[in-house]
């Protein structure tokens, strides 16, 4: 799919339109943060069915982006609780139990990415790397419904989307 370069302005930066999988469209930008949880660039992706992105979606993403530190913290706390309570389901090995004791600021996951889907109030933070075996090779995702985490997705068996 060939598309002309299209840019959409938001309060957190310029979103650039790119072709997405299966005739969808992928809007992309990065924000830079410095915090006690993560410092660096955080990619933001918004998948749409059309070449346009709604103001409602932009405002929703802006709300998340401006409070990113709070969302990173709540995602890590949620992930830590889930991994501790469901070690078998998430294949946490005995030699990884000590990793579960780290506080949220030092929890051994890194490189967060935000993924949104237009017309949905469900979105995810994917941590691209982590010291748990299940984080290899694609990381681990924490799903949110609006502003509350509700699920953890093990991505180890996922496939790359072209």
How would you describe this structure to a colleague?
Strand 3 and strand 4 form a beta hairpin. The chain starts with 6 loop residues before the first strand and ends in an 8-residue tail after the last strand. It has helices spanning 55-66, 68-85, and strands spanning 7-10, 13-19, 25-34, 39-48, 109-117, 122-130, 140-145, 148-154. It has one domain (7-154). The chain has an 8-stranded mixed β-sheet with strand order 1-2-3-4-5-6-7-8. It is α+β, with helices and mostly antiparallel strands and 162 residues long. The radius of gyration is 16 Å and the shape is globular.
Low-confidence runs (pLDDT<50, min 5 residues)?
Answer: none
Q: Provide the gyration radius in Å.
A: 16 Å
Series of secondary-structure elements, N-terminal to C-terminal: EEEEHHEEEE
Adjacency order of strands in the biggest sheet: 1-2-3-4-5-6-7-8
Distance between the ends: 12 Å
Number of strands: 8
Mean pLDDT: 91
Determine the strand fraction and express it as a percent band. Answer: 35-45%
Number of domains: 1
Structural class: alpha+beta
Indicate the percent of residues in helices: 10-25%
Oligomer: single chain
Main β-sheet, in a few words?
8 strands, mixed
Shape: globular
Tell me the number of helical segments per DSSP (H or I, 4 or more residues long): 2
Question: What is this entry, summarized?
Answer:
With 162 residues, the protein is of the alpha+beta class. Helices cover 19% and strands 38% of the residues. The longest helix is centred in the middle third of the chain and has 18 residues, at 68-85.
């Amino acid at each position: 799919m060939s598309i002309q370069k299209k840019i959409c302005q938001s309060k957190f930066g310029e979103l650039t339109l790119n072709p997405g999988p299966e005739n969808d469209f992928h809007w992309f930008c990065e924000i830079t943060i410095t915090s006690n949880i993560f410092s660096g660039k955080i990619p933001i992706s918004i998948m749409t069915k059309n070449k346009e992105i709604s103001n409602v979606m932009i405002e929703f993403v802006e709300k998340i982006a401006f409070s990113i530190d709070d969302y990173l913290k709540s995602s890590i706390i949620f992930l830590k609780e889930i991994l501790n309570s469901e070690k078998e389901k998430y294949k946490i090995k005995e030699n990884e139990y000590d990793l579960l004791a780290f506080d949220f600021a030092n929890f051994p996951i890194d490189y967060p990415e935000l993924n949104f889907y237009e017309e949905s109030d469900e979105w995810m933070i994917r941590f691209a790397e982590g010291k748990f075996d299940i984080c290899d090779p694609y990381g681990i995702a924490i799903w949110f419904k609006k502003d509350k985490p509700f699920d953890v997705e093990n991505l180890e068996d996922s496939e790359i989307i072209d």
